[in-house]
Write a structure and sequence with these properties.
4 helices, three-stranded antiparallel sheet, 30% strand, four-stranded antiparallel sheet, 171 residues, alpha+beta, 7 strands
């Protein structure tokens, strides 16, 4: 399933008296439209269960398992028009590994192998949205949003396994 999600991202447009950028100003917000692929039901349930389990364990947010395909500015074409033009979507992504990073939204994640059909889908959305910037897809599905020590994240990577290697996405 492909869907869109309106989300708000804070940005800073201010600078200090010397012209240096100031820290992120969360009072200034721009809206963006995120296009997601949702895994097919069976794998979505497995990922959702793991996300809920980790969220309970670390008292962190629960979110829908998804792969971001494109992020468009708010002033782009309406998502319903774009989704209507895409037609049926059928993709399969292969799990490469479980990884972690310092980025909050990629604390712990499933890294998929790069996919030409997935990038082509992102490019179709980019062109249809008339957004000024192309989006290069880093195909991953986040499992946890948290601030954890590197050692803890390494331990989690070692413990997480999924009963499948390929994940289907369709609309």
């Amino acid at each position: 399933m492909i869907c869109h999600f309106d989300r708000t991202r804070g940005i800073s447009s201010r600078s200090d008296h010397k012209g240096a950028p100031t820290p992120l100003d969360m009072t200034k917000k721009l809206r963006a439209i995120a296009y997601w692929l949702l895994p097919e039901t069976a794998s979505r349930e497995v990922f959702a269960k793991k996300i809920r389990e980790l969220a309970r364990r670390f008292e962190t947010p629960v979110f829908a398992p998804h792969v971001s395909v494109f992020i468009a500015p708010e002033n782009s074409r309406h998502p319903a028009e774009i989704l209507g033009e895409l037609g049926a979507i059928m993709l399969e992504l292969t799990i490469h590994s479980i990884r972690f990073s310092e980025q909050f939204t990629k604390t712990l994640f499933v890294q998929f192998e790069r996919s030409v059909p997935l990038q082509e889908l992102g490019d179709r959305i980019w062109k249809a949205s008339r957004a000024p910037e192309q989006y290069v897809i880093d195909p991953h599905l986040s499992l946890l949003y948290a601030n954890l020590a590197t050692e803890r994240k390494k331990a989690l990577v070692d413990e997480i396994r999924f009963p499948f290697r390929n994940v289907g996405f369709s609309s």
